[in-house]
Amino acid sequence: MITVDEKNLTFKLDTPNTSYVFGVIDGKYLCHFYYGAKVSDTDLSFLLPDIRVPSLNKRDKLAFMDLAYFEYPTVGVGDYRPAALEIESDNGARVCELNYVNHKFIHGKPELKDLPATFGADTDSETLEITLEDKCAGVKVKLLYSVFEGIDAITRSAEVVNTGSERLYINNIMSTALDLRNESFNLLTLGGSWGREKNIEYRPVGRGFQGVSSERGISSAQEHPFIALTTPEITEDAGRVYGFNLIYSGNFEAMAKLDQFDGVRVRIGINPATFRYELKPSESLQSPEAVMVYSDAGLGRMTRTFHDLYRKHLIRSPYLHSKRPILINNWEATYFNFNTDKLIDIARQAAKSGIEMLVMDDGWFGNRFDDNRALGDWKVNEEKLQGGLARLVKEVNDLGLKFGIWMEPEMVCPDSDLYRAHPDWAIQVPGREPGLARTQLVLDITRPEVWDYCFSCIKETLGSANIEYLKWDMNRPLADVYSAGLPADRQGEFFHRYVLALYRMQEEVLKAFPKLLLENCSSGGGRYDPGMLYYSPQVWASDDTDAVERLKIQEGNMLIYPLSSIGAHVSDCPNHGTGRTTPFDTRGDVALFGTFGYELDITGISD
Ligand code: DGJ
Fold this sequence. Notes:
This protein has 11 helices and 31 strands. By secondary structure, it is α+β, with helices and mostly antiparallel strands. Strand 7 and strand 8 (about 140-150) form a beta hairpin. The structure holds (2R,3S,4R,5S)-2-(hydroxymethyl)piperidine-3,4,5-triol.
């Protein structure tokens, strides 16, 4: 519920167990007052004389700016803590001060332009829009705050509009910033590596910057767009925690900084280190959405809140609430060495065992006999699949199984017909040889002709037979970043534009195939984030299928993401990655804490 005290310009967001309070100080500054356990009072004037928000009239301005708690802090006017917004005016000044203009109550939850975001109906969600402005810089900022019935989460985002007559640059646009008093907080993060995603790690919050970020173009396996501040006594069911998750799949930053007065500022948003966005007069830019969850009943309540929010207000798939088909994927069964007969053999045996879908992984197209070639050539390899997809899918369907397929649409191998025809479509700097990873380059899908090609390949493939599932893979980070489609002074927009182009492609694929079950993947869990969950109800959690190691990886995932979203399979033993042998039961039990499926040569194991 959202309550507005019109007289004092104080705003209160209530969820079942939490309250978030902020308001206007000295008629212009939007300051943060409180976030924590639910406050029942409706008169919140007792929060106003708080030592941290003294009246500006009694002090020099900079003393105030240096210590007040701000809802959306800016660069250049005396707040020296990490900012939510940095504006560079056409004259080069990097100074912006946001003052309150007005507020608006909105029933429901507005969509965010071109970005995945939580959704809600008029009956189960409420939104507060606060407009701030800097007349001198010619900037208006609209802050959105939403709450959802029965869920202890608050979502926030910001839209920046150029209201001036000159162009300006946004060097930093955070989705949320939050000032809190330190409670000997620890910072909880979910970093890792390929095959070791989402390790739950704690470190004390000290002075200086502490946080995580990605510069890889994807949210990444190395860091994750989630941080939490936890009190020292935290357990599953006791202690306090503030969790922050970003609904975004590209370069992000999430950090906390302890200040001179023992305040902690948290911010989360697009990574400013790789970002600079031009706004011409009247143009605007929407930030991704951040989710904030407070629990004073330990990590468990935070977990359940994120799960509820994502199941009810983020994941849109028709499969969300239905039992997912138990699938068998041929990757660890055959790698690149398969043909129609082999796949049919697997399907025949799988059908007898109650498995419901065969997924054909990498290697079915072009000259793809190994991982050194052919990405981009999405034409069936008839040497492997005699009779093409139509025959294979029909025979699999005749055995009573659904059929799913693997693609990696954003990529191109130098050894491919696509690259030979359009070498310039790969992301690269003119005159510099781009670095390869897994012998592949990334396509510049921000360019319309490249986007159209990738989209048409997916559409043609999915439309060519009864294909009910797509595993959308992405197996390398971005490097040598430069877009032939952008002028020199707009190259700083590239990483964000890449993510927007990706989102648009997944949206259009789902529009064209509304019943499709989409599973995202990026060398395992390299892009397993809430942005991707908006498009796919499940994400392949890790290339590490060892049941014992999976316990840790899946625990990290289920800290914030619903079990129904965790792609988990029973694989062969000794495990191909670790060499460990675990009982079949153990492998089954672990995979059941996810979407459940198999990834082994079922024709080679006993009944
Ligand atoms: C990486 C994925 O995570 C694997 O499951 C598999 O699909 C390979 N790519 C195929 O190249």
